[in-house]
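Support case: flavin mononucleotide complex. Customer-provided input:
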Amino acid sequence: MFSSLTIRGLSLKPARFCAPLAEITHSAFRRLLTDFGGCGAHFTEMLSGRKLLKEDLQRSPYSRRAPAEKRLFYQLMLRPDDPVDQIIDRLATVGPDAIDLNLACYAPVIRRLDACSQLFENLPSLIRVLRATRRAWPGPLTVKIRLGSAAAGNEARFVERLRAIEDSGVDAITLHTRFFEDKFKRRSRHELFAWATAQTRLPIIANGDILGEGTLTEHPAHFQSVAGIMIGRMAVARPWLFAAWNQQPVTIDHAEIWRRLHGYIAADFPENIALRRIRLFTKYYARNFHFGHTLDMAIQNAPSLEAMHARAGDFFATPQALFREPCLQGL
Ligand SMILES: Cc1cc2nc3c(=O)[nH]c(=O)nc-3n(C[C@H](O)[C@H](O)[C@H](O)COP(=O)(O)O)c2cc1C
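Agent response - structure generated as follows:
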């Protein structure tokens, strides 16, 4: 199932990807994913194009890649008046395998910048930014979108934007089948993948509420026409998910995995940011355990990296009952 996908000569095997997740898919988490393997490509979290001009890209935990990390898409947030040539020139110094534009984020602070979902809605600006990016970047270029705004006429608007994306030379599209206004409240509308793929010649990567192989086998018709799949939140709860799907031998020692990521984050971030990143990861990871809320609470309140380590040690010292599949509701 989705064993490979080639985008502008870039071979991705398997065509199963870890989604960009702000404050989660940093260098430390991607290193953990790399340890497990089985994921066809990683995505950075959304990076502000303008901020990239000032960052030390080789050192920053947002842009740095581990030598063993095979395929890395850099996801950008671009604004209509951004100096796209300069941004891409600078990004090229870290050797991205591909560039992805975020056209999906609906956060008010981002919309006020005319970026992401706001850029998706503003067709002339969207075309300008896509074309400028295509001119500056000769490699694989993808976009990540939702269904757009749910207001009347949404199908026609969506198709109009697909045309603009195709005509601007984009190579593939990741589609999260929710409207902007849905946020995460409604389920992702997987039944719309068949319709969406019929509207474009570009490969579509399916995203939204894909929990693992079971989601695909439950409704195979929904995913028949897509070229690949992308998983976000469940890959945080289960970083071994891609390796297990790949039928690689995987050892899952929950305590060791938590400790390893704690160590990776502590190595990559200053302590005050490391604490926040570990807290966020633990919210997802704790969903594996029947009594995960005790782990989550202990970590949210821990004042230091050492305290976190000790508290996780106390939790894992007792054998923990596991859910067959973590519930991600509310995350
Ligand atoms: C905490 C969090 C951070 C996210 N950050 C990003 C981001 O930086 N860029 C992006 O395109 N999508 C982002 N998303 C959306 C995810 O990439 C994905 O589209 C969404 O979670 C649906 O997939 P899932 O159901 O497999 O999690 C984020 C989602 C969450 C929950």
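The pocket of flavin mononucleotide is lined by residues 19-22, 24, 45-46, 75, 102, 104-105, 144, 176, 207-210, 231-234 (CB under 6 Å).

Case will auto-close in a few days if no follow-up is received.
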